[in-house]
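Standup notes
- DV: blocked on the single-chain target, sequence here:
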Amino acid sequence: MKAEVRWSGPGHMSFLAHADSGHALVMDGAADIGGKNLGPRPMELLLMGLGGCSSIDVVMILQKSRQDVRDCVVQLQAQRADSDPKVFTAIHLHYVVTGRDLDPRRVEHAIGLSAEKYCSASIMLGKTAQITHDFEIRSLEC
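- DV (later): unblocked, structure below
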C-alpha cells in the first residue's frame, strides 16, 4: 500500500492526498494554524477510517450469516490526549443496524469479530485508546 500527500503551497495548510487505489482527497489544518476548512483534519480521517473499516466488517459478517441487513451507520466519539502527541485515548462506536428480523446476538457477534479480529484500524488504534462499542437495531416491517 502506498500513498502520497502533497502540500498546496505557501499561504495554505491544505494537502492533497492520493491513494494507491487512484482516489484522492483534500486534508486541511485548523484555522488557528492557517487552515481554511477545505477538507477533514488528518485525525478526523483516522476516526472515519476506523468507522469505515469496522462497518465493512460488520455488514459482511451479517450478510454471510444470512441476516437481512439493509443499513448500517456507526457514530464515533473520541477523546484525545491533552498534550503532544495528542493520540486518541478513548473511542466509542455506536452502531445503528437496520434490517428485517435481525438477531441481536449475531449483530453483537459481528461487532465483536470486527473489533477483536478483523478491523486493522480498531486493533491499531486500540494500542493507545480504550475502544468501546454498543449497538441498536432498527427493524423494518415486512
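- Follow-up: The longest helix spans residues 42-64.
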